[in-house]
Amino acid sequence: MKNFNPVYPKLFLYNRFFSKFYLIQKLHQIFWVFISKFNKNLKPFFSDIDSMKKENYISDLILVNEFHQNKLVDEGISVATDALPIEEHKKFFEICNGFESVLNEDITQAEFYNTFGTKIISSNKEYAPEQLSRMAGHFYSDQAINLSPTLYEWAKELFYFTFGMELPKNKFFIEIISEKSSAKENISKLSRDHIDRFIPATKILYSPKEINKEQSPFVFWKKSHKTNKEKLKWHDNFIRQEISHLKDETNYDQNIWKAQAEKSGFIEEEILCQPNQINLVMTSGLHRRSGFKYTGDYFRHMVFISFYNCIGPKEILKKAFIKK
Ligand SMILES: [Fe+2]
After folding, report:
1. Which end of the chain is less crowded, N or C, counting CB atoms within 10 A of the terminal residue's CB?
2. Residue 307 Cα to ligand 1 middle (Å)
3. Buried (b) or exposed (e) across 239-265, using 16+ Cβ within 10 A?
4. Any idea what the CATH number is for the domain that residue 238 is in?
5. How far is the CA of 282 from the centre of ligand 1 (A)?
6. How far is the centre of ligand 1, averaged over its atoms, from the C-alpha of 185 (Å)?
7. Number of domains making up the chain
8. Over the stretch 149-195, which tens digit does the pLDDT of each residue have?
C-alpha cells in the first residue's frame, strides 16, 4: 500500500522494515498514548466520562463553536451545513467540476490548467490502478488561505481546540480529491476500516458537492474515538492487522473489525453530505471511505484538511511536560 497511515508522531524513523515487528509497534503505541495523556488539551478524549467537556478551550471566534466541540468530544464527529460563504463554496464547486470533466475526458488536463490559470493538480492513478480514476489538487499556505479564508479559520479553531496550540500558517494545507467509479473496488486496499492515529487527532472533511449512498460516502464509527481500556485492545488488533497486511496484502478481513466494533458499542454511520458541508472528524476513531458499489458515472469530491504535519513529536512532548 502506497499510503502509510501516520499512526504515531514520527519521533523515530517510520519505515516498512521496523513496522513488521509487533514489539516495536506496541512500544511505540504505548509510549505515545502515555505521553499524550499528560497533555491537558487531549485529556477529554481519553476519558470514559461522556459529560467531560473542554469548556476552557472554547475561543471567542466561535467558528468551531461550543456545539461542535461538545459533539466532537462526545461522538467523535460533528457536521455543519451551509458552512462556507457562497463565493468560497463556488470556487471548490468549480474546481470539482473541472476535475470531473478531466475524469470524464471531456477536457484534457492542459485545458483544465488553462481554465484554472495555474497548475494545481496531480492525477494519481498509481494509487489504485484500474480501479478508479482519481485527481488531486494541492494548496499550501497562502495559496490555501486565499482559496478559502473561512476554512482556514475553521482549521485554526479546530487545531487550537485539539492541541491548545496555534496552527502554523506555513503548514496549512488543503487537498481536494475527486474520484470516479470505474470498476468495482478492491476493498482490502482503499476502503478498510482504520484508525489514522493512536493519539487523539482531528481532521476537516469538506464536501463541495452532494455525496449520496452511491458516491462512496465516508463512514464513521461513532463513540470509537475515545482512548480507554476498550480502545487500547483495539490498537492491539489494529497493529496485528497491519502487520499481517504488510506481509500479505490479501490478508484482510473487514468482518472481524465489524463484529468487534459492534461488540464495543460503536455505532456505524454513513456520513452523507450536502453541498457545502463541513465534517469535523476525530480520525483517531474508526473510519473508512465506503467504496463505490457500482461502476458508472459516480463521483466523490472531498476536501481534506489534516494536521499530521502541523504538530511534531517535540511539540507533543513539550505540551505534556512543560506546563505554562
Ligand atoms: Fe483515515
Report:
1. C
2. 12
3. bebbeebeeeeeebeeeebeebbeebe
4. 2.60.120.620
5. 10
6. 17
7. 1
8. 999 999 999 998 888 888 999 999 999 999 888 655 555 456 788 88
